[in-house]
Amino acid sequence: MMRYVPSDKYTIAWFKLAECVAKGEKEKAFGVYRLLMHSFDDQAYAYQLEGDLLGAFQDQRAIEKYAHAAHLYAQNNRFKEAATLYHDLIAMAPDDKHHIIRLIEVYKKHKSHDVLIAKLAGLADNLVEQNRPLHAIIIARELEEMSHQNAATSIYIQSILHLSKNNEVSGIEDQVAHAIHYLTKQGDAHQLQNLLSVLEQTNAMWYKHVKKLLHNI
Length: 217
Prior knowledge:
Blueprint: H1 11-23, H2 26-36, H3 43-56, H4 61-75, H5 79-92, H6 98-107, H7 113-129, H8 133-145, H9 149-163, H10 173-185, H11 189-202, H12 204-216
């Protein structure tokens, strides 16, 4: 995905770059890219553009370049650009939780507490929808530490219900146990009973597992 914006002075070079990409001429494209890098001193943008080029040629090294660009954007307080790239990285590398953690750090720079909570909750919802409930639990733990109980509780319940669609609990016991412990600590018996009722009807193994966890607390 090419995201550069041509300037009047370097229009020919930018169009040449786009032409090389369109023709699949990787070496020529990077030759033009190296020439263009002398035209500006925005290092974060340079890494982002390199990531764009690598991505256009299906080169997995694009992830590394985007991550470096996002880090530099955040370091220079350009949080909007950093957040956009971290969202891209989460989609590109769904098994890497570190991009989620970095995005949380960027979100926490926001001055509005309400906006921060909304962004974190929205990110968690998206992760659950994308079949990544364990990553959503990372968000729930962050909200838990921020004492935002309603949002954390909702995400924990969504995540457990989504995880229960699989027939395996092994390997994720700690995350599930933490979620159940938190829900119990909040003292919302109604929420827990609803959760158990759904599990009882949908997955007997998970129902027994959660009941055991509740018994051991």
